[in-house]
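User: DUF7224 domain-containing protein, Streptomyces lichenis:
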Amino acid sequence: MRRVLLTEMRRGEAGKVALLAGAAGVWYLLSADVAVSDWIGWWNQASIKVQVFGVIVMGSLMSATAAWTAGRARRTRVDAWSDTAPRGGWSQALLLWAAAWLWSLLVYAVMAAVAFQRTAAVSEVTAPVWSPLVLGAAMTGLQIAAGVCAGTLLPSRITAPAMGVLWYLVFVVLAFLPGLSLARLFPALDEHWDATFQPHTARLLVAALWCAAAALAVLALPALLRRPVFSPGPLAAVPAVLALAAGGVLLTVRAPVGEPFWAVRAEQPAAPVCATEGRVRACLWPDDRHLLPQARDAARAVDRAVGALPGFRRDFRQTGLRPAGPDSAELPVYRPVLDSATMTEAMLGSALPPRPEGCAPHMLRETGGYPDAFLVEAVVNSRAKLVTPYYGDQFAAVLERVLATPAADQDRWLSAAADAIGRCRPVPAPPR
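Assistant: Predicted structure for DUF7224 domain-containing protein:
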């Protein structure tokens, strides 16, 4: 049996397609720029990135390849001979499935190693996250099993490309229906899990069990439907029952409203990692402590710009961290790697007090009809030496006039403007 498996792996089409998909996956993972990537530096996202590529791209290709390989005997008209083999139909299907799945697992492991190496170069604080990868490997096995089943029962030349297109369409359609319970049975986790979330390991492992058991059950179908081969007998009921049980759990479990199905909110750290510069403090999740140098530079720039001004918030907490009080501001971190300028801009964007609920922005005629908060933010950003958006010549002229006034006049106007925004009032006229 082992010799036949190795022969099929060596001579079959699955190895060539898997290596081609692996080359594309490695290039995809290595070509990402650390500065703009949304996954390099977060272990959760690195696992999801490999899982999504493995399921949607490699899984679809390998399912098509498995369908082509399974229909080989009928296309070459040697099925009458192959059906008389001492192995039953289920074991023959298992052989073809294992030959393709083992190649995909090998390539999958290489892609995971590449992604984890890139993430470890940015953040070595926490351990790699494996549960999404386990689910991806099991889901790929289900896709290949479906390809073997389709190729055996429908050994046409069109079956192979049809299987690849079918799987791709399934994932595209389900991506637009995230609330559909059926999507949990065909998971491709294209979600954003920053430091706020952790994988729901139990649900991911139940989904992996569903995929693995469903793959074994699907592989028994050709032997049950085709008379020339030995039937698998009652043993086929074991994976079918496991698949029904695991699939039923996935369809009946409900996540809390507003929460993702495959992840849970991370527990609040006992002490977040903070950078304090002057009057400004910026706190991060411990997993994101690699951003401390950038947070320290940003806190220093914000302290220079608004550190002594009343009305501005100077305590920043990364999204998901418990605020320290009503004067705390949210610090959004959308990517694992941020430069100091982007971090400074995010802090200054949160430094202004929020408008009361239901308060519409007031337009400032002098700037050409833009909201008055735009001018306040532009002045603050300019004081922090950040590039400000261009809203037209009239707006730029008012901004230059404010920046040309003495620092004391700027401070008085900024303080009054922050107080007015927090009270839902128009900001005072800009100083001349």
